[in-house]
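Table S2 (text version). Query chain:
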Amino acid sequence: MFEPVLLKSVDIRSAHLLSTYEAGGGYQALAKALRDYTPDEVIELVKQSNLRGRGGAGFPTGMKWSFVPKQSGKPTYLCCNADEGEPGTFKDRIIMERDPHQLIEGLAISAYAIGAETAYVYIRGEYVTAIRRLEQAIAEASAAGYLGAHILNSAFNFTIHIHCGAGAYICGEETAMLESLEGKRAQPRLKPPFPAVAGLYASPTVINNVETLICVPHIVARGADWFRDIGPDKSPGPKLYCLSGQVRKPGLYELPMGIQLRELVEEHAGGPLPGRKIKAVIPGGVSAPVIPERGLDVGMDFDSLAAAGTMLGSAGVIVIDDATCMVKVATRIVEFFHHESCGKCTPCREGLNWAVKVLRRIEAGEGAPGDLEQLEKLCKGIFGNTFCALGDGAAMGLRAALAHFRDEFVAHIEERKCPYH
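Corresponding structure-token output:
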């Protein structure tokens, strides 16, 4: 049976303090890793758990760690991607505000495994409370001997630095984040070389998401079998789901990976608002293609959602009811991606610009015959032709909206107005 990882009985006012974290068994996993495991054994343990990255890509974490070269002659770095710019996503912010020591312990164990002595937490600058809580937690952990030199009387040395971003969505892409950390304009790099070989300062670098890193202490403390027993075999473990939109009980829910999307929305989140019906759900932040109501009987895991033509992404679940215009939703999403494009790739820079113009025209009741075919052509030109996944996310989202709700687009063009507004 699944047991929530986060403590239920903690006073929310003191949840971020070291004393609270230690009272719940905090930093015992770090002590166990340093005492009982070699770095390679920690990597093997994480491989056995089949922990997949919670940042969106779902790549096996232990495998990513194993790519780091052992004798590169350069320092190895660990980077935590806490930028969290995906609309509909707020899980990492809650972790850093309410339980920052869990992240620090995850960083320390992960750094020990890959041979890193320095970590950077790249956090979006708007997360003021999270930044302050994390700074306080780092100071507490350093004073208690969990960070610094010879941690817990071992040969392991480790320090954490916080780097505040400036609100650029593109920094959620790992190589753009590295560029920003180095003081350059945040634009994605051409890969290969991959960060594991030539990342931060051209040195071996591992980049993990906040939620990925907080799973590591529990795997070390409870074992790989415990983790694999939660959720499906190919995507095991607990998962944080961000519920927002037109739903009765929005919030952050911790449930097993693979839970049915319909159960998540209708039971845990209370279903649609009074008098409304669910029209569609975006399952993984606005990068993920929308699912119509008839498709909600799908597992919330990487493989099940991919088979359904969408993706888990950041698990930012956005509920859309039957009073909402899908043309307006599609327009706002593409406007967001156009605004956040770094401009490096011509298909993304120019294609999204034209897509926004066409969508705005349709939404304003000025659409023309052939506009939908033009949008599909633009999606085809963008998808798969960019340095990073920003353009792909925009194209996939627009394609899904056109496929599932084409009648609404047609109505805007034929009636020359929005049927909903």
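Notes on Table S2: Residues 1-8 have pLDDT under 50 and may be disordered. The chain has three domains: 18-228, 238-321, 326-415.
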